[in-house]
């Protein structure tokens, strides 16, 4: 068991307001030509919060938002929090059926959108006025933000459900603010500027946005759906961005295409997928002094569970680059199948405790009881989240990730972890990104394992050469029998590889 102390958790809007009082003229948001200070942001949000309350929004409500990413969305989100409610940001570009499936889980909510968005279920619209105008409009009759408890819901993140119905993760205020402030994560606080790149419906959006705004830093909102090297260069040069979060796949792409694009950053977090030792090695050779953090964690333990500052020696670890130590305020325990603690060096299920643990799944008590049980830690019963991920602690207390329990498959009587195949393939010369896919027959039995991959420009190893290299790293039964090069791997909206699409891909 490993634990790190936490900065004092606070209400999200309480923390933002505190910085607005201490440094009202400090930069909070940049979006296109807009530069918004803390006073303007909080006063504009207070105006919007007054409107929300007038429309019937009350503490404890969940307010779905169908508003595109931008400064206006940030003000609306902060307004919802000021009203004592929680928000659920939905992407207006999602299929109507997905939006309907989410709205059906809520009790006749006020659904906010832009004018013209009513067919998506929007019940109230807020035109995207300049935040300075909104701030002035509420100057004479200032709305008093509602006080909240740390356990009150702040936001809901909808993740893919195994039944096809999106699962809503209820995230409290404490989970969002536990990592930021004095003694918190590197790269957040006064004088620091982060890029907001993640999709607004994803929990890492909260990492980028509220991580800075609750700590006194600033955020540059990026409209681009896919960040390319040239845009990264401009963010650093023109907007002075110094802190970033990138999905592993996007990090790998930029390393391959334009490694120098990272020049000028001061802190970089990478995660969401297993790290590629080759790409990490290339980055560290070029930027030995730039902190490169491996970030790991599910939405149910908000944003991040552990971090690890990567060093060159990590790229030689056979099992892959470690995911490190728990973030502030988080406890991690590894449990065997029988529920007993795993010994150092022994694999177990990663189970988390602490203020980052979500309140549960919206309208799903059965799954909430299953995944968020009360477990005993150090003689005390505490609420936990069972991640379904596998890991082990080495003799230094560093956590190593070993894939998903549910990505273990049996083929010809042999148990195979697909993550192990991906780690071996990532170390194969010429391979840029990859995914191991278990293909099944009509009866659902695993028929074979395929390796789907993209190549580094200028490299063209044949499937036979890839197979030969994997045979030096994996037992014979774990070497894939099909090799399928692609120009690009399909991705979900959060930037991760779409494994479902690869499993269904015709061959």
From TrEMBL:
Give the source's domain of life in one word. Bacteria
InterPro entries to which the protein is assigned, alphabetical: AA_adenyl_dom, AMP-bd_C, AMP-bd_C_sf, AMP-binding_CS, AMP-dep_synth/lig_dom, ANL_N_sf
Q: Which Gene3D superfamilies match?
A: 3.30.300.30, N-terminal domain of ligase-like (3.40.50.12780)
**Domain AMP-binding enzyme C-terminal: residue ranges:** 421-496
- Please report the stretch or stretches of sequence annotated as the AMP-dependent synthetase/ligase domain: 18-362
Q: Which NCBIfam families match?
A: AA-adenyl-dom
Q: What is this protein called?
A: Amino acid adenylation domain-containing protein
